[in-house]
Amino acid sequence: MLLRISDVIEANMKMQNESFTMKESYTYVKIGATLEVKPILMTLPFMAEETESNLPGSNWYTIKYNGMQGYN
User: Are 62 and 34 in contact (CB under 8 A)?
Assistant: First the structure.
């Protein structure tokens, strides 16, 4: 199925650029996100050392994520 989708994409792209080939193409996705979640277990005393820097005067736990994946 993926090869068939690749063929369809290649056929569509050739309408704009006759020399286009999927063999010479690549796709990448880059994602950056910052999440704030209400901590449940993170505020318990045994987790205090771990979460102290992540809970700077608020009741929310901040998670930062950056990722990139791709294929060619």
Answer: yes
